[in-house]
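User: Fold both of these, please.

Assistant: Here is the first one.
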Amino acid sequence: MMRSFAAALGATLLLAACGADGNGEDSQSVASAPQVTFSTRPATTTPEPTIAATTDTTQTVSNAGAAPTTTVPALAAEQVTFAPFVSELASPVDLAWRNGDSSLYVVLQGGTIVPLRDGAAASPALDVSDSITIGNEQGLLGLAFHPTKPLAYVNFTNGAGDTVIAEYGVGGDGTFDPASARELLTINQPYGNHNGGNVEFGPDGYLYIGMGDGGSANDPERRALNVSELLGKILRIDPTPDRDQPYTVPADNPFVGVTGARPEIWSVGVRNPWRFTFDSATGDLWIGDVGQGEWEEIDLARAVDGGGRGWNFGWSAFEGTHRFNDDQSPDDVTMPIFEYEHGDAGCSVSGGDVYRGSELPSLAGWYLFSDYCSGVVTALQQTDGALTGQVELGTVSGVSAICSGPDGQLYVLSLNDNAIYRVAAA
């Protein structure tokens, strides 16, 4: 089934699950793709059921060695509220921060990055609105600051609708230097949807890039499992240039040296990983992957299991845990830790982050995400890679992302309200 949420909802939606747009291009089919063996954590192609919502989530925390054991209260929706933080922001889609700077930097889909200082929007730190394609799932989509250098990396769709990863120098006042702009990577987009858009630095200091499968619907050219394509993947690069190279590829990337494979690939088999994140405490990788017509999914790659190195998350042989394109039979598929069916729960997942703030001890370690269509904000708890808790915390209209600040505090970005809310104690 092909659909466009932007049309159905009468609003711009850059994380729509489907919607055909544009013309296709010739592509190597999965049948002729390089044959590779995927790495795994303990993985299975057997569907893993989600669990029912529960508030029986009392946690015991102990400091191995000597500190007395303390009991954290069970998480309940009544403990949490979404406090207005800032408004009048046109289509906020991402939020980032840099070391040594108290400002939060908000990415607006229309092409600007706005610092938030003392709870108010300041003058734009960057404006690329004249050089991007805007609309539906296109625009300025992601931002990441280098952890140790005065550099920032953005993800946007250029005038041709293709994905561009670009670097900017950042001044002491947080302003981006337009003259310093350097394009690292340009990736052709055959359709106007499923662009991905997220960029994040991992705990290893490398830049991770989320790429959708290229769009249309049903992965028509079977790109997501084709390792000769960058689409439908999580990529990992070192953005530091090497002589005349725009970036380098880490030597331990899983497809380095594999004939016919793109060495930038870290994980395969994602449909539209609009928002992914690394848990600041554990390094675990959480991915909110937008589904096709029936199922939305959350994927987890724990750092202790390899962090997704060479993993196959299944699309488009699977939508969630459900068989989808029967002409594909990949081995070693890592199933989602959580999935939900379209309906009251929503129809387009907006990935989030793990709460590591201090205001809500009962929320510590829980992963929060939402859905653009339903607005339901859900918290998930995992133990050793297995889902052990699920609580619906409330609703916010038209959530595009849930992002973390430098203190582990979480912020909910609303496209419908043109606003940001802070996850706070009720």
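And the second sequence with its predicted structure:
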Amino acid sequence: MFLSLFISRLILKNLGALDYGVYGVVGSIVTMFTFFNMAMTTAGQRCLSVELGKVNGNFSKVFSTLLVICLVIALVVTIILQVFGPQFIEKLNIPENRIEVAKVIFHASCITFVLNTLQIPFTASLISNEKISSYSLITLLDIFLRFFLAFGLSYVLAEKLSFYAYGIAFITLFVLLINVFISLSNSRLVFTFERKYYKEIGSFFGWNLLGGLASVSLYQGIQIVLNLFFNPVVNAAQSLTIQIKSAIEGFAANIRTASNPQIIKNCVGGNIQSIIELLNITTKLSTIVILVIAVPLFFRIDFILKFWLGAPPDYTALFIKLYLINAIIDVVTSPLVTVIQAIGNLKIYQVLTSVVLLSVIPISYILFENNFPPQAYTIVLICATILTMIIRVGFIFKILKIAKIKFFLSVINQILIVPLISYLILYFVNSNFTDNLIGLVLFSITSSFVILSVSYIVILNKLEKTKIKMMFLAKLKNN
């Protein structure tokens, strides 16, 4: 997470705000098609985990079927992009002297998309087999290579924007090859055309496709809408904000990466009590993790941006603060989606949430046409996320026999009470810390202590508190 944020600083410094914004808006054209990847990733991990949960499951055939589908997706999307992409670029608000470079990075982004699509089955295999250590090492390698690429841009004499775009493509290829080597050492590749496997994956892929389309259209489509009404510098601010959002939510999502296979396998086995226990601990840990990261950022964002970027683009700090609020609301209930994917009515869920998320873009467009400022869309996004949260909770009430009032109060505690109490305490102590790096570190430590203490008191039950006390006492005895 920290490396990814530092990489953004290096890229912004070496490319400049204008080229960084161009890269963000051109890349968004390709990234919009990653809704295929998002849908296939969810469907793939689900189907592979289900196969492992069966007594006589055929993991290799499902894995091979997944790879074939990903090959088809990569081919179809590449054709669409190459036919329509270059003409669309010419209609964007990009300086005339950067149009040709924009087309070059567009083609590089297409290559990266293909490689990321082919990587889906191999990553899904690692996660469903719960080989989290291998998955983590590959992720670390990827981010370190991206760091060295961003650092090396200052020594590049050629066109830096093109060099960076193709550098990302090369790194993606290298990571794909490592994924292939590790995954195939654990899974036998047996190409099959058995209809039942394609039908099983296709059914989940189809409805997840709608959810993936909504998510990608929301975050990448808004780049294009912003570009239509504002200059590329606003796109640069949005790109930086999305990077921070992705880093923070990705950090919290690692908890779900570890718990999802277990939740799905218990869904296959019908172990309702185990599902409820896993959801309970996953949502609470997700809340604590997102708050520990988000709260110091919220209070110290101006200093962090100045230290991180030097001269951040306008609107960056405001965008980030609003996205942090949105992330806290979303992360708390996101583990519920795993259960809905496994045993719920996926069709209705995806339709409802997709309509809510996709409505953000036309509403934002209307607001911008009426001279609302750029941050207006983030307010709309927060409202959409609250509605999505309500939909998730409603589906869980239908799927699992749980105490509704108790569960509802638990969610309210996690998205409202804990953040509010923590904010009020830290608001009064914030002025006691200097506005420098040492002050940031000390405030972050204080913030973590406050959040952990409030979380311990408010959201943990008696049994969980007892377990923590026993673990703490055991550590003291061992030392």
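The longest helix spans residues 232-269.
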